[in-house]
Design a protein that fits this description.
single chain; 145 residues; mainly beta; three-stranded antiparallel β-sheet
Length: 145
């Protein structure tokens, strides 16, 4: 293992949580510790990329992390659908087309009922998230023109 992206299920794991794999060449079992530079994995570590360089684990910096958010959502946090459901005349609310490409469901704020909420399909490659830091809260935002 040379690279590992921290997942939601990793929150709470500590530096010495190891992952075992088998060497393809010689069959030896190898244990890697990608959380070593993090100490204990926190919620704000989800999505960060841990890389092994010269047998030592490092965590990407904040700028790299923010640039990689969309990739993390695609791989870990959101289900990606290969094709949109166009049966009701759907069009992506960002690009305004019904192009046949990967989509994700994004929850519509204010429609929550318990653990259920309405969602809208959006083309995955139309999403360009930005981190907006306020005094008390931080948001992921998408500018739509």
């Amino acid at each position: 293992m040379k690279e590992y992206i921290v997942k939601v299920t990793d929150v709470g794991k500590h530096a010495f949580t190891g992952f075992r794999s088998r060497c393809k060449e010689c069959g030896t079992i190898i244990t890697d510790f990608p959380f070593e530079p993090l100490g204990r994995v926190l919620k704000n570590d989800v999505g960060k990329k841990c890389r092994k360089i010269n047998n030592r684990w490092y965590v990407e910096n904040q700028e790299q992390f923010e640039k990689g958010l969309v990739k993390v959502y695609k791989e870990d946090l959101m289900r990606v659908f290969e094709h949109p459901n166009t049966s009701a005349g759907w069009k992506c609310p960002i690009c305004k087309t019904d192009a046949d490409k990967e989509v994700v469901l994004i929850g519509v704020a204010g429609t929550e009922e318990g653990h259920i909420m309405q969602a809208e399909q959006i083309h995955l490659d139309c999403i360009e998230l930005r981190l907006v830091k306020g005094d008390k809260k931080t948001f992921l935002a998408q500018e739509i023109i």
